Each structure stands twice: as C-alpha cells, then as structure tokens.
C-alpha cells in the first residue's frame, strides 16, 4: 500500500540470518499460528522487522509533575521550543504538545517525517547509535562521526549517513558499505578538529538543519522539568505504583530514568535504592536525581544478583540487604534489546541474543527474596522474544509459588504473546507493547493520543504480588 511505502523509507532491520530465523520461529510459534493463522503471523513478523528500523511517530516527554503542574510544564516547553524553532520557516513551527489521555505526567510531541530531503554530494558517516539519535531529534555529536570529506570545514552543508553494520573505519574520507540517509546538516567543526586531535573531540559536530524525521532537539531544554523517556518506560513506573514512605529497590537502574520517576511518584518521601554494576553509570543516576530535585534516591555500584545478605546482624546501610527489605522491587532486566526503535541493524550472534535468560533468572531469585510479603515485583524488558518475556513469567510462577500475577494500571499495550503455555487470563494480565500490531493503522492521520499507546518501542511488563 502507498502508506506502507511512505512509512518504510528504511529497509527492514538488519539481523544475522540465524537471528532472523530464531525470531521468526518465535513469532510463528504453534500457539500463535493456531490462533491467528499462518498468513497473519507471517505478516506481523514482517511488520515487526520493518517498524523496528523506523522511529515512533512522536516524542514522549515525562514531565516533573512533582515540581510543577502538567499545564505549566507544557506552556514552558512550548515557549522554549518556539524560541528554538524561530530559525525555522513558519510552516514548520506548528508545534502541538498534547497531554497523554491516560498518563498524568506525559506530554507527547508529534514527529514530522519522513520528509522529502535531497541528498547532497558531500557526506558524513556516523555510527549506528548516533544515527538512531538523529532520527529521534538529536544533532550529531563529534564522537559519533566516523567519516567525513577530506576538506570539510565549519559551515559546510553535508548529508549525514548512518553506518548499519559497524564497518566504517574511523577517520575515513568516504565509505561504500551499507548505510542509510538520515538528513542534512551544517558542519560545526573542521575535519581536522574531529580526527586530528590528541583529546577526543566534544560537542556538536554537525547541526542537523534538514533531518529526515523532524522532532525538537531537547538538548538542555528545561532539564529539571522535562525528561525524554520512551512511553512504556514511563508506564512501568505507574504500574509499580510506589507510595510515599515506602522503601523501593530498582535493581538494574542506570541511567536512572525509572529510578527518578519512582522517586517523583512518591513525592520524594521514602527511599529508592538504585543498584547498577557499572561504576560510571552510578554518577549518571546521581546527576539525574539532583537535576530533578529528588533527595530520596540512594545509588550504589553493586551486582544485584548478589544483593541478598545472609548476615542477619548486618548494620551497614548499603547492599547487600537482608531478605524482605523492600515494599516494592523493579527488575527492569538487562535484555537482548530487540524492541528498541529506531534500530537499523543488530550485529549480535544468536548466542548473544539468547544469553540473557539465565541472568534474568538469577536477578529474579534475588528480587523475590528481597521483597516483603504483600509486596509488589515488576519485571520489564525492552525486547520482543518469548524466552525473556512470557517464558520467564511462566518459569517464575512455577519456581515461586508465592508469586501471583496482578492487573496493571494503566494497561495501554497489548496482552502477552501466545507461545509460553500461559492461560488466557494470565496473558491478559501481562502488558506487551507490540508496535507491529498497528504498523498499518498508525496512520499519521490518526490522532496522536490514540497512536501513542501503539506506536511504541517493543516492551514487556509483568506485575506480581508476593503472598
């Protein structure tokens, strides 16, 4: 259909053939095929591969409603972004910021794209991660630049391409490998100051003036009032349902978006303990908490699989903790990340994709022990496999008889996917954000609030009560 063609400016996500085959066997499993038929299952799988390489059609902003009302933040944001856009032509300034109909601290901004942008003869090649950021409204920061024309000078107009398979050598003057066009920009640095310096270059290397997908750049805009976050990640905080005065554990917390959301939902009253095993990421959590004026966050560098203490007489306040120390636990688990959008390419082997399940189970064991009776455990991932989502739920219900699935509020995504042997009632309690289910209907014409719940990253949430 013409809409499919208009929407699909990029090829489907590039995966290793073994990974494509594996994912296909997941999405065309016996239970799914029996329920929807071979053709529909096949079509969903193809749509998944297509939508993963494209950005969602809106930007989601979590508003710090613990500091100001949603309306105030919305007006401030409109002012800020109008100032930012005064350099653009009038037709591009039609900026609508819409509150989400079901989530009280979310603002949505439409993304304009794909737009008709002409490719130029001068080309810069950027890394895949940088390319994805550009598709979501960012400028090109110097460390992301891999190749540039030999004589690139400040002020040059250039086309920006994203390197799909990580094959472009840093410092090259051209690149013929597989890559994709993301828009045009103006060089803010000479080639020599990007590549020929002792210190790694910092700051904006290319300012995007004609991005293929246009959305406001949030760099430094209202840092304490507006936080860029994917919609399902905001939903997780609400599903956890933290209350003032509780003690809450975020097990894999960096960079701290969900940690800070939990603290804000508690009105900064109580304690949110954030753990992450990577030292420099702990600083990010502290910075984010400080920026958002949240004092109840305590972050520690610690491996959560070892967070349960066997010493009942332990007096130190940090990890490990005695069993049953927390009212609620968020296990936003490390995962294969196959739900992230836009993602043009994933060069991982099948072994790497499948390596997360055992780690997730170790973390689950610790989570259940650390949770008080009557407490809530939320498990979430940003991936689309059964092994890391519904199959983990089936395993957990079996391994921990004390756990019971709970309804989720808000429930905006689809239900759980068939294939893990869960009952229809159990699947209804799960929340799986499945952008492939509405990739056709996510018409740019359908109103933003309606499409916001469907045109998301791929994501999974399960909520348990410990009896």
Automatic annotation (TrEMBL):
One BP annotation, GO: RNA methylation
The keyword Zinc-finger is annotated on this UniProt entry: no
Catalytic residue positions: 382 (nucleophile)
Superkingdom as given in the UniProt entry: Eukaryota
Domain SAM-dependent MTase RsmB/NOP-type stretches: 158-467
Pfam families: Methyltr_RsmB-F
UniProt entry keywords in alphabetical sequence: Methyltransferase, RNA-binding, S-adenosyl-L-methionine, Transferase
Keyword Chloroplast: no
GO MF, one example: RNA methyltransferase activity
Alphabetized PROSITE patterns for the sequence: NOL1_NOP2_SUN, PUA, SAM_MT_RSMB_NOP
Annotated positions binding S-adenosyl-L-methionine: 252-258, 276, 311, 332
InterPro entries tied to this protein: MeTrfase_RsmB-F_NOP2_cat, MeTrfase_RsmB-F_NOP2_dom, PUA-like_sf, PUA_sf, RCMT, RsmB/NOL1/NOP2-like_CS, SAM-dependent_MTases_sf
UniProt similarity note: Belongs to the class I-like SAM-binding methyltransferase superfamily. RsmB/NOP family.
Protein name: NOP2/Sun RNA methyltransferase 6
């Amino acid at each position: 259909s013409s809409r499919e063609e208009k929407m699909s400016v990029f090829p489907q996500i590039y995966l290793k053939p073994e990974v494509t085959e594996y994912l296909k066997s997941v999405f065309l499993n016996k239970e799914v095929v029996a329920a929807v038929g071979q053709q529909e299952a096949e079509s969903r799988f193809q749509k998944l591969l297509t939508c993963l390489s494209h950005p969602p059609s809106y930007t989601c902003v979590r508003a710090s409603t613990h500091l100001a009302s949603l309306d105030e933040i919305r007006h401030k944001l409109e002012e800020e972004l109008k100032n930012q856009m005064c350099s653009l032509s009038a037709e591009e300034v039609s900026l609508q910021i819409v509150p989400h109909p079901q989530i009280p601290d979310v603002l949505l901004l439409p993304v304009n794209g794909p737009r008709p942008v002409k490719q130029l003869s001068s080309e810069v090649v950027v890394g895949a991660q940088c390319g994805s950021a550009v598709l979501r409204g960012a400028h090109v920061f110097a460390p992301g630049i891999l190749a540039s024309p030999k004589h690139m000078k400040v002020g040059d107009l250039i086309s920006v391409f994203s390197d799909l398979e990580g094959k472009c050598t840093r410092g090259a003057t051209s690149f013929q490998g597989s890559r994709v066009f993301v828009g045009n920009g103006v060089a803010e640095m000479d080639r020599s100051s990007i590549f020929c310096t002792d210190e790694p270059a910092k700051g904006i290397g290319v300012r995007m003036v004609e991005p293929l997908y246009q959305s406001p750049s949030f760099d430094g805009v209202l840092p304490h009032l507006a936080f860029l976050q994917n919609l399902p990640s905001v939903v997780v905080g609400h599903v956890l349902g933290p209350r003032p005065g509780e003690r809450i554990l975020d097990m894999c917390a960096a960079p701290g978006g969900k940690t800070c959301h939990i603290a804000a939902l508690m009105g900064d009253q109580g304690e949110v303990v954030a753990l992450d095993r990577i030292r420099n990421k702990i600083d990010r959590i502290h910075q984010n908490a400080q920026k958002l004026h949240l004092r109840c966050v305590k972050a520690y560098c610690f491996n959560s699989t070892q967070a349960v203490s066997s010493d009942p007489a332990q007096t130190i306040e940090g990890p490990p903790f005695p069993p049953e120390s927390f009212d609620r636990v968020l296990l936003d688990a490390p995962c294969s990340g196959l739900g992230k959008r836009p993602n043009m390419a994933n060069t991982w082997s099948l072994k790497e994709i499948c390596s997360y399940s055992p780690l997730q189970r170790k973390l689950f064991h610790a989570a259940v022990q650390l949770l008080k009776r009557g407490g809530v455990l939320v498990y979430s991932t940003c991936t689309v496999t059964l092994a890391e989502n519904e199959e983990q739920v089936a395993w957990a219900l079996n391994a921990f008889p004390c756990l019971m699935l709970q309804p989720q509020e808000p429930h905006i995504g689809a239900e759980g996917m068939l294939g893990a042997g869960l009952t229809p009632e159990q699947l209804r309690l799960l929340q799986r954000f499945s952008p492939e289910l509405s990739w056709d209907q996510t018409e740019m014409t359908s109103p933003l609030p309606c499409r916001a719940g469907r045109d998301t990253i791929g994501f999974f949430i399960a909520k348990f009560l410990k009896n």
